[in-house]
Recover the amino acids of this structure.
């Protein structure tokens, strides 16, 4: 079986910590895959807010997620706190990738690597649009 591989960049531009809630735990007793996506979403919102943006307003443009890839490295349990580091990579005309390194904050062990493909979007016109210049300058 071919495995997804995500290489980590050298530079991360944002870090946050997010506690694992009881509602994040699945019937296997560990963090559910759907809950990890929710945690990544929360980290992305915190990242955007830190830079003065939101998902619906990045210099007048919105974003949508085009794809996601997750590589799991270790289990996560209720009561753990996750550190999520975010990098912006592969800047293109209409989008980029966000790379997330997820670690257990107390143990320092890597628990997951995630990539989300982000596309800038005009919801009124219902079509992709160019990446704002200011965003590009922040993360080039």
């Amino acid at each position: 079986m071919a495995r997804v591989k995500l290489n980590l960049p050298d530079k991360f531009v944002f870090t946050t910590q997010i506690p694992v809630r009881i509602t994040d735990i699945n019937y296997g007793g560990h963090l559910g895959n759907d809950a990890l996506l929710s945690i990544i979403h929360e980290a992305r919102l915190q990242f955007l807010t830190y830079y003065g943006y939101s998902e619906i307003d990045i210099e007048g443009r919105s974003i949508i997620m085009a794809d996601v890839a997750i590589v799991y490295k270790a289990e996560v349990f209720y009561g753990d706190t996750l550190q999520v580091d975010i990098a912006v990579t592969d800047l293109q005309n209409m989008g980029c990738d966000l790379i997330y390194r997820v670690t257990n904050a107390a143990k320092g062990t890597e628990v997951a690597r995630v990539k989300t493909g982000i596309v800038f979007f005009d919801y009124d016109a219902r079509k992709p649009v160019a990446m704002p210049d200011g965003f590009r300058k922040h993360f080039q």
